[in-house]
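Hi,

I'm pasting everything inline rather than attaching a file, because the server keeps stripping attachments. The sequence lines come first, and each chain or strand is labelled.
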Amino acid sequence: MDREKRSDVPLGRRMPQATTRIVVADRNVITRVGLRSILERSTGFAVIAEATSYDAVIDAVDEHGPDVLIIDLDLGDDTTRGLKIVEEVTDRYPATKVLVLANTLSEMIVVEALRRGANGYLCKDDVKADELGKGVKAIQDGETVLGKGVGNLVAHSLGSTRQTEHLTDREVDVIKHVAKGLSNKQIAAAMFISESTIKFHLQNASRKLNAHRRAEIVHRAAAAGLL
Amino acid sequence: MDREKRSDVPLGRRMPQATTRIVVADRNVITRVGLRSILERSTGFAVIAEATSYDAVIDAVDEHGPDVLIIDLDLGDDTTRGLKIVEEVTDRYPATKVLVLANTLSEMIVVEALRRGANGYLCKDDVKADELGKGVKAIQDGETVLGKGVGNLVAHSLGSTRQTEHLTDREVDVIKHVAKGLSNKQIAAAMFISESTIKFHLQNASRKLNAHRRAEIVHRAAAAGLL
DNA sequence: TAACGACCTAGCCAAATGGCTAGGTAGCAG
DNA sequence: CTGCTACCTAGCCATTTGGCTAGGTCGTTA
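And the predicted assembly:
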């Protein structure tokens, strides 16, 4: 629907054939080279830029206005930042489709990414070589591409009454300390707040993560790439 | 020293130039393609086989007797199996060098891998494109290649009086239940053993992982890829 | 056979945790 | 101004936990 808006965006040079112009964002060289190799093996795809940091992604998208952004959300020590980028890109460039390529599968991350406008979510370890090209094509046709296992996760999330709530900064801070094996008292001392407050944050985090023990909180937060 | 033994092993076809024959083991297609692409970009390297499972690695090494095996230890749900493979390969084929290419950095895994004969340990996210070829060459020259950060980890491990002990199967089982947020009583019921035994295993795991709280145990075990 | 590692069990006690209710402030958006 | 969110604090009480000592069996290996 927004396809005609395409011409308003700076285009770089346009291919005579309909070539899909792709930006790849991943901190890992091997993955970047692999993606480029797999995609450019079949005609119709061109990786026009690579990015290895959150800022670089924004720069690359601003500069090239690609058809598709393939991104690993974990580009630094703060996965939340990756989610914000999905939101920003889909918001500012509706013609640019976003395909998330994750290392691990976490319900929270998947749901958040899709909620913020991601057009696809694939898991690196599960994806087959030919699925990449197909996926990119499908996304361009307006489909939403969900990799093996991802679909179930989404269905599960929709089925449950509980909606995915995201943790506040403070809650994540506390959880990081818990993961280091500190007691509430020690965490309180480290964060210069009361022990009661630590318990308060952990209670809230428990509810949001649907966990009942601090060990489970740590596990779920770690699985979500929050630590 | 064992280089003359080389000719006893079935060779496939031998290159006129001294080409390094490499087997790549990784469950991830993108990584496999990326590695092949990076390595074969410079002359002198040939990826002669790829493996995606533990069994396939053994088969490939048996069949090709490569100069170098580049392997991600996490080829299934049991990283320990990867360690055993390192041991088996370096044991049975002294002429085959093993370069571990890991996703994450865990002291326990690094130390165990080196102890079992790995000739190098690089971290995917840290490695630069040109470091791969250099690393393989260095390993062939008999050097031990440790990626950024890996060296510190090893030094730390050597410096500490405590030697890295590995967790038993039972301990890992218990930790998995802890990660799910179960109490000792619940775990005991699930595993059909006494609550005392659960505490016993957790005490031992605490000592081995140098943790003092179950949340920390879960975190460290997860970081080591044990869950 | 003896030693060893992995496994299993019991009981004690101080400390930590989980689950709850019941307050407070500051900042920001409608 | 009102509502909302994030943030902070207090107290209570049952349950869980960590840390300890002190036993046991079974199978493998020296």
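The beta strands of chain A are 20-25, 45-51, 68-71, 97-102, 120-123, 145-146.

If the labels don't parse on your end, tell me and I'll reformat.
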